[in-house]
Design brief:
With 229 residues, this protein is mainly alpha-helical. It is built from 10 helices and no strands. It is globular, with a radius of gyration of 19 Å.
Length: 229
């Protein structure tokens, strides 16, 4: 994450954040490389999830540290919004792809879509954050950070939705990751209802988040024009 320019995380915090972002940059670069190698060597995407499963689980779960960064004040970002963004991906990684290993789920076309979109987005994001901490960021990287989302965001969301929809019948019929009555706590939880809520949430949130990203792009890449308006 980017530090607050007024207060900042301090020298030690900057070193830590730079290291964290650089590790994530390397991790997602490795994941993208594995995806490319698998697809080129096999001439198809079938089996790509099994090929990259372990590193994706590691580096996506490691992103939970970003919630802690927000809570302790290392970055000026909402901890709740950060958790929501990371949590939705963790649902796909652990709640879908890890929990429903059926071939038609892990080999769904949505899986390579989200893997490529996530990887490219995270590579540019984490490298941008690491370099921005020390006020050094090439213009090309800035452009990529605020432009690639136009393709990557819809691609990633489409991949997530396709993967969830493919896994949904298994999760619903088997009551996977659910808590059923009766039990001592007299409490029930149905994971497939959570998936329904997540899928429905894309309807209002996708255009809002895409619009927010577009406004950020205009503000960062066209600062002179914005000042004249």
């Amino acid at each position: 994450m980017v530090c607050n320019k007024k207060h900042g995380p301090g020298n030690f915090g900057k070193v830590y954040l730079a290291l964290y972002n650089f590790v994530q940059f390397l991790g997602w670069s490795y994941i993208l490389l594995l995806v490319i190698i698998h697809i080129l060597s096999n001439k198809c995407y079938i089996g790509v999830w099994k090929f990259v499963q372990f590193p994706v689980q590691i580096f996506q779960s490691l992103a939970l540290l970003e919630v802690i960064h927000c809570l302790v004040g290392l970055v000026p970002t909402s901890a709740f919004l950060t958790f929501i963004q990371i949590g939705s991906r963790l649902v796909v990684v652990w709640g879908i792809l890890e929990s429903v290993p059926e071939p038609d789920v892990v080999n769904c076309v949505g899986v390579p879509m989200l893997l490529v979109a996530w990887s490219i987005a995270e590579i540019t994001r984490y490298l941008y954050y690491a370099l921005t901490l020390y006020n050094f960021c090439p213009w090309l990287l800035v452009w990529c950070r605020y432009s690639l989302f136009v393709v990557l965001y819809p691609t990633g969301v489409t991949g997530e939705i396709l993967t969830m929809l493919t896994a949904f019948p298994y999760i619903r019929d088997r009551q996977m990751l659910s808590i059923l009555l009766p039990n001592r706590a007299n409490f029930s939880f149905h994971f497939h209802y959570v998936l329904i809520a997540i899928l429905l949430s894309y309807i209002p949130f996708f255009p809002q988040l895409f619009g927010h990203l577009w406004k950020q792009r205009c503000r960062v890449l066209s600062p002179v024009k914005n000042k004249e308006q």
